[in-house]
Specification:
about 280 residues, alpha/beta, 5-stranded parallel β-sheet, 9 helices, about 30% helix
């Protein structure tokens, strides 16, 4: 069993999607493994290096093992990465176009955040069951949040919308998603977590996000789910008379995830821990 593991996840600003990576990896390895940030380890360290949740492929160093990570920028990927799974088919095709062979990048797909329900039981929040949760992208929230007051939240709630900030800690955001009537998310992991917990959702697409290669990461994830890349430009497009159609609310919740989660777990590059009771 791996005793120490250097994990790469984005820590540039607080964001619940990135915070999920060490949670998932710790659950997979068990408490006997100490997880440290790969950013604190020298390149020549003997500690194994891993990347899991997130679009951090272009930040990895040689020798890093990749389990479910995706691309975000149109940059040549680092050499000598060891692939066990990637987020979706577009990431795999990009890697094959940039020097990796088909044998080096197995056709195992899935963002590890999809495994979260196996490790975390959200709090029950009955007051949110009639609300559509709206999640801005963390790079877009600074100006909006500075001018957003409790009265604004109350006004939004009256129309069925509840704003959830991605900086508020992963448990807070996941609890809101799991209890929502539906999710409208500019954050990719808002959609992924909603799929994981069987909650109807739709992509809030206002255009290319800062630092992103267009919509690559969204299209990559949707392709892994055999899902059309439908979106809305503003959450106010969601209404009582259309939300079920737009979010696919009439579909069987079990069909929201089409990724083979057993294959994703089997691809984990280290000896997994014994199954544990979900965190409550």
């Amino acid at each position: 069993m791996t005793k120490n593991l250097a994990l790469k996840w984005y820590q540039g600003s607080p964001n619940f999607g990135d915070e999920i990576s060490p949670v998932i990896v710790q659950a997979m390895t068990g408490p006997e493994t100490t997880i440290v940030s790969a950013d604190t380890e020298p390149d020549d360290s003997a500690i194994p290096k891993l990347a899991a949740v997130g679009s951090v492929m272009h930040h990895l160093t040689e020798g890093t093992e990749v389990w479910g990570t995706g691309m975000m920028l149109n940059e040549t990927p680092p050499e000598n990465l060891e692939f066990h799974a990637v987020r979706g088919p577009k990431t795999r095709r990009f890697l094959l176009e940039h020097g990796y062979s088909e044998d080096q990048v197995p056709e195992v797909y899935g963002d590890p955040a999809l495994l979260l329900p196996e490790f975390y039981t959200p709090k029950v929040l009955p007051w949110m069951h009639d609300l559509w949760v709206v999640i801005p992208h963390h790079a877009q929230t600074r100006n909006w949040r500075n001018g957003f007051h409790s009265e604004d939240q109350e006004d939004h709630n009256l129309y069925g919308f509840h704003i959830v900030w991605p900086q508020d800690g992963w448990e807070t955001v996941v609890d809101a998603i799991a209890n929502a009537r539906g999710v409208i998310s500019e954050s990719l992991h808002g959609l992924i977590v909603a799929d994981a917990y069987g909650v109807p959702n739709v992509w809030w697409n206002q255009g290319t996000l800062p630092g992103h290669n267009g919509a690559f990461k969204f299209l990559d994830y949707f392709e892994s789910q055999n899902r059309q890349a439908s979106s809305i430009q503003h959450y106010s497009e969601i209404r009582e008379d259309n939300w079920e159609y737009v979010m696919g609310a009439n579909r069987d919740p079990r069909s929201r995830n089409q990724v083979d989660l057993e294959a994703l777990k089997a691809a984990f590059p280290y000896q997994p821990a014994e199954p544990a009771e979900p965190v409550v």
